[in-house]
Amino acid sequence: MPADRSAAELESFLAERADHLLRTAALLAGSREAGEDLLQTAIERLLPRWRRFDGDPEGYLRRTLCNLAIDGSRRAGRWRLREGLLRTGLRPVPDAAGEVELRDALVRLLWKLPPRQRAVLVLRYWEQLTDAEAAEVLGCAEGTVKSAGSRGLARMRELADDWNDTAAAGGGWGTQL
Amino acid sequence: MNTDVEDMLRQGMLRYAADLHAPAGMVREAQRRRGRRLALRLVTAGAALAACAAAVVAVVFAGLPGAHQNSSGPTPSVDTAYVTKRVASALSGAGLAEIAQMTVTSSGPVGTRTAKEWSYGDQWRSVVYSSPGQPVFEEGGASSTYTVVNYSARTWGRQRGVVGQTEPPSQQTGCVRAAAALSLLLRPGIGLSAGSPSASVVQLLRTAISCGTLAEAGQQRVDGIEATKLTSSSGSLISETIWVNPTTYLPVRVVIRAAAGSSVIQQAADITWLKPTARDQAALTVSIPAGFRQVPFGPTVMPISP
């Protein structure tokens, strides 16, 4: 560990890991643009600490992304709005692409979940962290992660079941999710 | 269905993320944004300082032979110049002769926080307390070591080989940074540690004093002594006041007040200058409470809330 890390080292680290971090950020934030903004803010927070930072920068940035996403959504109250959309936005429409569309729909559904549930699912299924690791990233108890994850998945299952029923009747969901 | 949904969610994430690539230059952009935010802060501070500097210029101009003396203007700068020179000189001598012990209180809309800080040469230590008076985190070190104790997590970490001779702000960029130096000084647990590990209390005070933006404003009783008061111009958004001991000319109290809308944020430091006896030097050492777990130095132990 060098005593004094340079900005060039941060650039070199990001050259390797920024794509992955951006993907995490976009999944947390709900769009590429919001993800870029989130990652940019996280890097800005790391910057003043970078010179003598001796931890895992990816872990730090991941944790910051999650906290920013949760706090940002909470402040804006956006998830409530999204939850409202979620309840009214499901419209069965004819869909030949079946399963692929369901996968895409599940990601869109992910963005409509409350922020903590969303963060847990991103950490579990995108970052492939264990409940304990996700709890450490989010700074909460493992039980909180488990319950948020199971509530988020339950909502997904509920909608996937609807999807299957609708698909069996010859339709799928629209893209309004 | 359970596994199906989990698998499909994972696959959906992969499909969605596959085409996403981070733009180049994110570090530069972060530096630019950070610079812009710091500049914004300095503009606010600068407004107060510019007004103060203008007052000083006016005083100096009024003192020139033949210049018109405005009887309603501020007090001639002779006292100010004399006091600030003496204070700067006292601070120069204090570097290794005195331990600066400060109790810093920050109050604002979100509540009050207190910290105790010690600074001596390149050694420093800071303990931040919660409002009920319990330590929240403690950190400190010297030029080559940095130790941090996180009381909430009952962990501690140590980093060796930390070097980074940071100049105090105004030495590089002029007096507009006087408020920034004071602000850095008064930020409990953040200023000395994360900002400038080697910019000691003495250096920061000297920076603020030497800029010539503070004017002598009479005597005021502080901790039982008739301290000499140096203050920025009244009516500024940010006001800085330093009280100095009239005998030693060392600062004994520093207060910054900033008005933000209807809120007022105030940071105050009471400073005691201690002789570097073995007992007082012990206060510069970070103590690790029994039962605390050592963890690798990094975000989990650093007193930050990303």
Concise account of the structure shown:
The complex is a heterodimer of chains A (177) and B (306). Chain A is mostly helical. Chain A has two domains: 1-76, Rna Polymerase Sigma Factor, Chain: A (Orthogonal Bundle); 77-177, Winged helix-like DNA-binding domain superfamily/Winged helix DNA-binding domain (Arc Repressor Mutant, subunit A).
Summed up, the domain count of chain A is: 2
Strand order of the largest sheet of chain A: 1-2
So what's the overall shape of chain A? Answer: elongated
Share of helix among residues of chain A? over 70%
Number of helices of chain A: 8
Shape of chain B: extended
In total, the number of strands of chain B is: 12
What low-confidence regions of chain A span 5 or more consecutive residues with pLDDT below 50? Answer: 75-96, 171-177
**Roughly how much helix do the residues of chain B carry, as a percent range?**
25-40%
Average per-residue pLDDT of chain B, rounded, comes to: 70
Mean pLDDT over all positions of chain A: 77
Could you tell me the CATH topology label of the largest domain in chain A: Arc Repressor Mutant, subunit A
Given helix and strand content, the structural type of chain B is alpha+beta
Task: Output the keywords.
heterodimer, A: 177 residues, mainly alpha, Rna Polymerase Sigma Factor, Chain: A, Arc Repressor Mutant, subunit A, 2 domains, two-stranded antiparallel ribbon, 8 helices, 75% helix, 2% strand, B: 306 residues, alpha+beta, outer membrane lipoprotein receptor (LolB), chain A, twelve-stranded mixed beta sheet, 12 strands
